[in-house]
Structure formats: structure tokens, C-alpha cells
Amino acid sequence: MIKVIKLKRVAAVCIAAVLTISCAAAVSSERARTVSGEYIKWVDFTPTTSALRQALEIDIKSHDSDTPVGWIELLAYAACKNGGKFAGGKDKYITQLYERIQNAEDIEVITSDMKYYSYFYEAYSAVLSGYVGYNEDGEYGVLVRSPFAAGYYYSHFDDFGVARSYGYKRKHLGHDMMGSVGTPIMAVEGGRIEALGWNQYGGWRVGIRSDDGRRYYYYAHLRKDKPFAEGLREGDTVKAGQLIGYLGMTGYSSKENVNNINTPHLHFGIQLIFDESQKDGVNQIWIDCYQIINFLEKYRAKV
Predict the structure, then answer these.
(1) Which of 74, 94, 155, 222 has the most CB atoms around its CB within 10 Å?
(2) Taking a C-beta distance cutoff of 8 angstroms, is the pair 152, 180 a contact?
(3) In angstroms, rounded to a whole number, what is the distance separating the alpha carbons of residues 11 and 265?
(4) Side-chain half-sphere CA neighbours of 144 within 13 A
């Protein structure tokens, strides 16, 4: 029943203000095409770590009940009520929606007069749709992992949008995690390796596309001389929590295998793709990963 409701709701996606949304792209796993040529061109992902964990707990708790509710629905509803902003601590609107559904209210009816619900649901689905589900053992829960292996120290702060000047003036469209050279770096989500090699800005880097095509994960500034996990090749399929490389300080050089980064760190980025033209062209969407990294801290893979 919940799947039918989701499909109906997604099929009702509307165009909101300056953001255009493709109804076809919302329900298609093939992100390369849209029916109308319209698609989301901007996402400001603002749920806090506490909101993510609160919604996840309800999702898992209610999953096998008579009134299941997904964490994306909870977060999209709260975003509408909060004007797209989340405060610290538990979110009252996440609790409110859960209680209303527990009282047998229909989520489609609840959200029918919420102008931006379809936008938030589609946008948050693009960020989180591969994060929760059934694992290989048939257990329902979190499928993704932190980019840092278990037992390895890192420090970080929210540096998304900070100015960068190498090459040209631009904004930092990722998240830096400071650590020691050689720290094992793990795949956050399973998918296909689309890029592996040298980049003038990112040094040795890996780019992985999620299985549904919606997310592109970028891991940069990997270690000099031995940046990647042994045997890793472009085109390979990886799983969440699989070793993909080692932290370093390469980059900022047109010459390969050069350490021109002052501080060893992982540059981690998540790009959202609603239309294939966004991947390497205009209207690229990179989101602030700080709260996601905090959320993933509880899910670190061992090596």
C-alpha cells in the first residue's frame, strides 16, 4: 500500500517557484531522459543529524507495522512545515506526521495542500533513496557506510561553500575530513566507478555513481604512489563499506602524483543528478554533506 501511495504522490510532482521538477524523472530509474525536459536544478539539503536519526528510527520501527512511514516522507513533511530549515534536537513535525499516520490518516490527504511537499520529497529521495533497505541477510536497516574506516580518527567542520582560489575563484562544493595519510577510505554507497585517476584539482580521485543513477560520490586527494585499493578499475562495481583508496594530500597540480595540498584530508562530495545533462554540464547540484557525515559516524566499516 505504501508503495502505491508513493507512486501516486511522485506522479503528482509540481513545478515550484524557481525550481522545475520532472514528474517522469521522479519515478524513473533511468536518469538520462525526462519527458518534459524539466527537472530540479537546485537542492539545499538541510536536515540535521538529529532529524535524520529521528526519522530513521521511526522508519525502522514502523516498517513491519500496519502503518509504516518512510523517513523520506517524514523529513519532507517536516521541511515543508519548517520552511526548509531544521533546528537542533528532535523535530516536532516528524513526530506529528508519525502520530497522524498512526491514527489512520492518509499521507496523501495530509500532504495534498502542502505546496512544496512534492519538491522536498523528490529532492530528499535523490539524496537518501539508497540509504535504507534490506541487506544481503534480509534485515531492514541502514545500507550505507562512513567514508572513514572504523578505528581511524578524523576531524571536520562544515566548510561547504567556502571560497577556493586554485585555478580560479570558486566555492568549495564538498566536505573536507582531516586525517592521517594512509587512512583507508570506504565506499559510502554501492555503485559503479565512473572516474578513477588523476584530476588537477582533486589529485588522485575516485568517482562512484549510485545504482539508481541519482548520486555521484567524489573522493579526492588520495595518497601519493598508492592511492587506490588493489585491483580497482574504472567500470568496476563496488559495495557500500568496500575499501576504495587511502587518504592523502595530492592535487592542485597539472602534473600527476604530486602533493600540493597542505593538509592531509579527504575531499568528499555528493552530486545529485536529476537529468544526465547535469552530470558534467551546467546546473550541477552538489549538496552540503556535513550532517550526512555526522549521521554516518555510527556506520563505519572495518578493514
Answers:
(1) 74
(2) yes
(3) 42
(4) 22
* Inter-residue contact 199 to 206 (CB < 8 Å): no
Q: What sign results for the dihedral spanned by CA atoms 175, 179, 182, 185?
A: negative
Q: Which residue in the block uniquely carries the three cell numbers 522508519?
A: 59
What number is the average pLDDT over the span 246-251? 98
**Domain residue ranges in the chain:** 2-142, 155-286
What pTM, to 2 d.p., does this model score?
0.86
In the chain, the amino acid numbered 125 is S
- Distance separating alpha carbons of residues 225 and 250, to the nearest angstrom: 10
The letter for the amino acid at 139 is E
CATH superfamily of 155-286: Glucose Permease (Domain IIA) (2.70.70.10)
pLDDT for the residue numbered 37: 59
- Could you identify the residue written with the cell 578524523? 154
Distance CA 124, CA 117 (A): 10
pLDDT at position 163 is 76
| 187-211 pLDDT, tens digit each | 999 999 999 999 999 999 999 999 9
For 59-106, how does the pLDDT look when each residue is reduced to its tens digit (9 = 90+)?
Answer: 999 999 999 999 999 999 999 999 999 998 999 999 999 999 999 999
- Among residues 287, 203, 283, the alpha carbon closest in space to that of 250 is found at 203
- Tell me if residue 177 falls in helix, strand or coil: strand
pLDDT at residue 166, as a whole number: 66
pLDDT in tens, 44-56: 999 999 999 999 9
Q: Is the Cα dihedral 77, 80, 82, 87 positive or negative?
A: positive
Distances (CA, A) of 221 to 111, 188, 252: 43, 17, 9
Cell of residue 248, nine digits:
592523502
Could you tell me the three cell numbers for 177? 575530513
